[in-house]
UniProtKB/TrEMBL annotation:
CDD domains linked to this entry: SRPBCC_CalC_Aha1-like
Location of the Activator of Hsp90 ATPase homologue 1/2-like C-terminal domain: 22-161
Protein name as catalogued: Uncharacterized protein YndB with AHSA1/START domain
Pfam entry (one): AHSA1
Family recorded in the similarity comment: Belongs to the AHA1 family.
Cited Gene3D superfamilies: 3.30.530.20
Length: 163
């Protein structure tokens, strides 16, 4: 399993997940840069993602939805704030009201995310840091199962890289 550590800091309102992949940094970067690969690992296996729009550039947007086993759609969006290919990127991640126009759901928390990919002797250590505006926002996504869902999603990357 690629996920090696999960750490929440309530005072800092952060969730940090660390993972290691048996692939170079450039290969891990491709997973996020290619919408068809991203949708294979964004979301837990039982909630596959569909990436509708994808622009992994500064100021770019990514719109996606995950589909539950019952067929219900859970839309979300990214606003990309920084890109340092292939070493990482930063973005805001939020929930959307619907999968038609992906208008932000302001009742749900938004996180600031920093994804970093570091070479460790031909392999990659990935560090995923999500920071929420409020402690209540962090607690809300923790209660929704973000640790389990994110870990399951990240753990799918090994199979994708090996295929």
């Amino acid at each position: 399993m690629p996920v090696t550590d999960v750490n929440t800091q309530a005072e800092a309102r952060t969730l940090t997940i660390t993972a290691e992949f048996a692939a170079p940094v450039e290969r891990v970067w491709e997973v996020y840069a290619d919408p068809r690969q991203l949708e294979r690992v964004w979301g837990p296996p039982t909630y596959p993602a569909t990436v509708v729009d994808h622009s992994l550039t500064k100021g770019g947007r990514v719109h996606y939805y995950m589909t539950s086993p019952e067929g219900e759609k859970y839309p979300g969006w990214w606003h990309v704030t920084s890109v340092d290919a292939p070493h990482g990127f930063e973005f805001e991640d939020g929930f959307a009201k619907n999968a038609d126009d992906f208008a932000p759901d302001e009742a749900m928390p938004v996180s600031q995310n920093v994804y970093r990919f570091e070479d460790i002797g031909g392999k990659t250590r990935a560090t995923y840091v999500s920071t929420y505006t409020t402690a209540e926002g962090l607690q809300k996504v923790l209660d929704m199962g973000v640790i389990e869902g994110s870990s399951q999603a990240i753990n799918q990357i090994d199979d994708l890289i090996a295929s």
